[in-house]
């Protein structure tokens, strides 16, 4: 439930939050302090709701997470210089770690009345279908342009240079259905955001986005449109060997 | 028109879930759209179950899925039978060192890639895709696996278009399909 920020700002009595924010921003009045505190409170509560890493959300010390992380291979300078590419294909070669990945998501979503698992082409197709089957939901592929044969709706999103586009079949998802969006990795959140928009345009309720890997920056600055994000592991650094 | 392979009642339901989209990707093609099958959780589960029942306990350690619809069927099959899942991808998608196999299209060529080291010598493998038409893509996939010393046990597809004779192109490798479709190309 989002607090009414206007109501909060009118409160002139210092609160514990506002006292801490006065310490952070010393040259403010009490009511200004309350405003800043409320903004801070919303920022933290949104960012805590927005990006949840599994280790800090119910799975602290779960040995499966370490095995999943270690099964991911880092490929330096792919697709271009400077990018440390997180390669999940090695995770798929480790049956136990792959199964554990899917099981963690299935355990999370099983009792949340999710009827749609939307997977983003193409690596979302490697995790999404098994999750859908595990929770009894339909699987809906979100695809690059001109791949889906029937009538589609499209949503553009920004790339570092230029734009790309995701498509969804008309009629695949009904209004009111509860959906999750799956991809292998989230960085800026642009692709996931496009997926969320497509589902919302057809009247679905996107409950959460879920990725195997999430860059630490998603905690603060991802562009997801206010949807919770659940992530299993952070990206790995380059492997020291060869 | 579609026919059943045998009398498994799950096959009838599966057949009705596949949507035919006329004139996609070009005039004269009746495209077999499996996305509507994926919208029915029970039918999708039945599809996977039929493959799993066939391959479980057959010592298959690799399920290779062809980009991208082969990923949708291949990955759950791999998980259920205890095998690794290996994506076979279009060029420049796989980040590590790859081997490539070209194949002929109706107009022009295309290429499939496999990560070096993903599959080891002597492993028993399945190749999975949603549909076999001329068999060109499946052949390229089989070639890649055999080049790294794997044994391709069978190719598995949801749909076959028998009139395009893909089965004959597979060099004697067994092909298992759930549904056949006739008159799909005019």
From TrEMBL, chain B:
<keyword id="KW-0660">Purine salvage</keyword>
<feature type="domain" description="Phosphoribosyltransferase">
    <location>
        <begin position="41"/>
        <end position="167"/>
    </location>
</feature>
<keyword id="KW-0328">Glycosyltransferase</keyword>
<dbReference type="GO" id="GO:0044209">
    <property type="term" value="P:AMP salvage"/>
</dbReference>
<dbReference type="InterPro" id="IPR029057">
    <property type="entry name" value="PRTase-like"/>
</dbReference>
<keyword id="KW-0808">Transferase</keyword>
<dbReference type="GO" id="GO:0006168">
    <property type="term" value="P:adenine salvage"/>
</dbReference>
<dbReference type="GO" id="GO:0003999">
    <property type="term" value="F:adenine phosphoribosyltransferase activity"/>
</dbReference>
<comment type="subunit">
    <text>Homodimer.</text>
</comment>
<dbReference type="InterPro" id="IPR050120">
    <property type="entry name" value="Adenine_PRTase"/>
</dbReference>
<comment type="similarity">
    <text>Belongs to the purine/pyrimidine phosphoribosyltransferase family.</text>
</comment>
<dbReference type="GO" id="GO:0005829">
    <property type="term" value="C:cytosol"/>
</dbReference>
<comment type="pathway">
    <text>Purine metabolism; AMP biosynthesis via salvage pathway; AMP from adenine: step 1/1.</text>
</comment>
<keyword id="KW-0963">Cytoplasm</keyword>
<dbReference type="Pfam" id="PF00156">
    <property type="entry name" value="Pribosyltran"/>
</dbReference>
<dbReference type="InterPro" id="IPR000836">
    <property type="entry name" value="PRTase_dom"/>
</dbReference>
<dbReference type="GO" id="GO:0006166">
    <property type="term" value="P:purine ribonucleoside salvage"/>
</dbReference>
<protein>
    <recommendedName>
        <fullName>adenine phosphoribosyltransferase</fullName>
        <ecNumber>2.4.2.7</ecNumber>
    </recommendedName>
</protein>
<dbReference type="InterPro" id="IPR005764">
    <property type="entry name" value="Ade_phspho_trans"/>
</dbReference>
